[in-house]
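Quick start: what a row looks like.
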Amino acid sequence: MKILRFLIILAGCATWAGCASAQIQLTPQAAPAAPPKASKPAAPKAPAKAPAAVAKKPPAPAPKPAEPTAAAPVDSNADLVYGAYQRGQYKTAFDLAMKRAQENNDPKAMTMLGELYANALGVKRDYAKAAEWYQRAAERGDREAMFALAMLRLSDRGGKSGNRDDAAKLLASSAKLGNPKAAYNLALLYLDGQTFPQDVKRAAELLRVAADAGNPEAQYALATFYKEGTGVEKSVDKAVRLLQAAALADNVDAEVEYAIALYNGTGTPKNETAAVALLRKASRQNSPIAQNRLARVLAMRPDTAERLEGLKWHIVAKTAGKGDLMLDELLAKATPEERSSAQDAARKWLGAPK
């Protein structure tokens, strides 16, 4: 069984688009078999079939776990706190939240204080104080505080460093209360195989809970399970539907994979126009794999403007380590004027001087 690896951190991002020789290709992202470290992972890989235009399968990084965010308030008074937070008035949010926490033992206000301390918003960053406020809110049943405190524990911040058992319990409690981010990250622990015995079926169940709640990272990860038949019955159609949902939520990796599915007509009606539009979008979001795929598609077209755009994206992707021998040959065969135009466009995109 192949291995799907994820990184449990507070931030991060990844890509698992794959590509086969002379094809734009969806290559299934692997499923867990050997336990990866939750704190230092590798990346999932990517699936499928493709057109007659793309390159070798690149290695893929891992999807980012959900980040803790300030919980939305439940009453009009707390709205004043959250409203100030949303407007970027962090000192006001801090003062209002502290007042409510001290006078009313309000768990949402406590979670907000944890958020402000953890992210240095309106106050000096202090992970210990953040953990204290998250702990107090978690003891009062706030699922967002449980999740945020778990993520501090997993990242060795805020005291009790490395206490994965405590973090796992907090994630489980938060997930039980319906927090999709907690369900997603709990699934990663079941894939990691260190805190819990590795259990891909349980991981798939938790990913489905988070995916059904609209979490794009979970939708993207669960798609890989359906592509491989890992912990679930293999289904390309379900995988592509999940990719579509995650792409609509602006998950860049899913945009790339769904574009490839559209281009190939894999699990969805073939639509090259929509595929190219998605690849352009992901390319502009600095996905080197999308840039390489887009270059492969456009560089073979007869239209000069499209061909030059393809060569531009090839040069841009190459600077990020996504080289392509076939596209190198096309660039070498271009006229000096075309080569210069593509290079100028690439330099402009990269912000480099001529």
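That is the whole record. The two ends are 49 Å apart (CA to CA). The chain has a mean pLDDT of 82.
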